[in-house]
Amino acid sequence: MVFSRRETLTLKLRHSENLLSCLLHITRKYKKIVVLSTLSQSSYGRYMAQSPPARTVPARLAWFLQEMPAFIIPLLLILTTHKSTIMGKYMLLGTFCVHYFQRTFVYSLLMRGKPFPLSVMVAAGLFCSLNGFLQGHYLLHCAQFDDEWFTGYCLLLFYIGMTINIHSDFILHNLRKPKEVIYKIPTGGLFEYVSGANYLGEIVEWFGYAVATWSFPALSFALFTLCFIGPRAYYHHRFYLEKFKDYPKFRKALVPFIF
């Protein structure tokens, strides 16, 4: 059977819509599982239950492996997709890759912390793979932008959030000397106003990205980020208040002056 060009295009669009619908369904189910596990605050870091050494992965290696798919998969999609005349979608997806390049190749080398449970690393890697494909597929094959569409100003909020996130991570990294295991009160930057300045920066990033792409997958990811690390900021804040009697009382958990 020979299809006309219009029928072929219609079939491709239906295929993309069905694939996107399926991925969104899987993502929603997976997010529910991850959010429920996160609310217990026992997956990783200071709240993690002790795991046998054979079931853990060194923190730097675990972070590198789990974050890398979110950088590699969109990059491969860009390289293997027919080039469009609309550069905005490539700028947006490139911005997504910039974030995960920093998290994969820079942040992972600087981080210090307890080994990750293997199950947490695998779950995070699966989510990053799914999310990287979902964001890339939508922008390259489903999103429709006008020829005159320009995203530079829209991405300003994203880069403000990214700057806050990186600066806050730098403050946390320099709080302790190598091999120190004690906790200290972070100061400087937005840590003067909130306990989770690094989390606030990342949340601002992804909501800025959602505004720039004006897409459901990006908004879904931004809401997921809020639900995933927002509670962690609250528990960090409560931890600091309980551990340090001199912890600043005016400092909030996540949103300056409000929460």
UniProtKB/TrEMBL annotation:
It is an enzyme of class 1 (oxidoreductase). Its EC number is 1.3.1.22. InterPro entries: 3-oxo-5-alpha-steroid_4-DH, 3-oxo-5_a-steroid_4-DH_C, SRD5A/TECR. Gene3D superfamilies: 1.20.120.1630. It is a multi-pass membrane protein. Residues 115-259 form the 3-oxo-5-alpha-steroid 4-dehydrogenase C-terminal domain. Coiled coil: none annotated. One of its GO terms (cellular component) is endoplasmic reticulum membrane. GO terms for biological process: androgen biosynthetic process; cell differentiation; sex differentiation. Its main location: endoplasmic reticulum. Keywords: Differentiation, Endoplasmic reticulum, Lipid metabolism, Membrane, Microsome, NADP, Oxidoreductase, Sexual differentiation, Transmembrane, Transmembrane helix. One of its GO terms (molecular function) is 3-oxo-5-alpha-steroid 4-dehydrogenase (NADP+) activity. The chain crosses the membrane at residues 61-79, 91-110, 116-138, 150-168, 206-229. It catalyses: 17beta-hydroxy-5alpha-androstan-3-one + NADP(+) = testosterone + NADPH + H(+); 5alpha-pregnane-3,20-dione + NADP(+) = progesterone + NADPH + H(+); a 3-oxo-5alpha-steroid + NADP(+) = a 3-oxo-Delta(4)-steroid + NADPH + H(+). Belongs to the steroid 5-alpha reductase family. Converts testosterone (T) into 5-alpha-dihydrotestosterone (DHT) and progesterone or corticosterone into their corresponding 5-alpha-3-oxosteroids. It plays a central role in sexual differentiation and androgen physiology. Converts testosterone into 5-alpha-dihydrotestosterone and progesterone or corticosterone into their corresponding 5-alpha-3-oxosteroids. It plays a central role in sexual differentiation and androgen physiology. This is 3-oxo-5-alpha-steroid 4-dehydrogenase. It comes from Oreochromis niloticus (Nile tilapia). The lineage of its organism: Eukaryota, Metazoa, Chordata, Craniata, Vertebrata.
